[in-house]
Amino acid sequence: MTDKSEQHNITTTSSPSISKPTTTASSTPTSDYGDKSPKQTDDADPMVLPLTSRHTSTTWTHFTRKRVGKEIKAEYIRQTRLFGTQAKDGGSNDTLSLAPYEFHQDKGRKDLAEMIILHEYPLTIVDHYGFRKYSKTLQPGFKVPCRNTTKKDIMQRYGTEKEGISALLRKTNSRIALTTDMWTSSNQRKGYMVVTAHFIDNGWKFQSRTLRFLYVPAPHTAEVLAEHLKECIHSWNIDLRLSSITVDNCTTNDAMIDILRQEFPYGSLMLHGRFLHMRCCAHILNLIVQDGLGAVIKNGLDRIRDSVAF
């Protein structure tokens, strides 16, 4: 399309993805321009030029005038797809509503990474023929990434979540309590330490965030556990804001807390560390119940468990 007053080059956006129509204050011509050009909003693209009284053709509803270097070009506005949903209005008639739909490859990759995280799927799921066929049926435009790309997406999500938790901890004025416990995987037989932070935010709302889920190599001695927990505390910069550490009732944890008490500044702990070690009430109650039931109905429980296993 050529303007009488200016020479325009017709260009289209080269991105393969479908984007929303560009909407600016000057994208739609009106019949009462006169000699004045429509004003652009403050947040409009400064490279977009307004339409003038010469641009009266309806074709300009599909183009925007842009300055590219020393040239003025017309950029084609891609349209979004319309998808219809049919619903009954309670009577015999059906109503059809149309809504614009826009596909984003990046958002699909983020949702795929979140699905793998939430449901603990293996990374090899992206290579499965059935999964790729299913994804192609749902969205032909979505390209299923490979395992390495999916791993990068997961690690990027981890970095985003970690930065969000770090910002929340930095803004919180209260002290932070920790709970930690060891967990052994059923298939790998490896020990993992879980560290969770509990605190009251500045809006007086109780918050809990998992800070670390890390592999702890054997042997799980008090020194090894203390070293890993100390590294976690220092990495989150909460060593001067600790209130207490809650652990279950085993002698290894008792020795671990004694080691940690010497690692932090004497004046940073509440009452010089008298309340640093908190024992898990749920674990105490569990030990009481097991001790009571074990002496009374141990044989019966063993037979029931054997029957279930059989």
From TrEMBL:
Biased composition (Low complexity): 11-31
Region named Disordered: 1-51
Bias-annotated ranges (Basic and acidic residues): 33-42
Source species: Hibiscus syriacus (Rose of Sharon)
The protein's name: Uncharacterized protein
SUPFAM superfamilies, per database record: Hermes dimerisation domain, Ribonuclease H-like
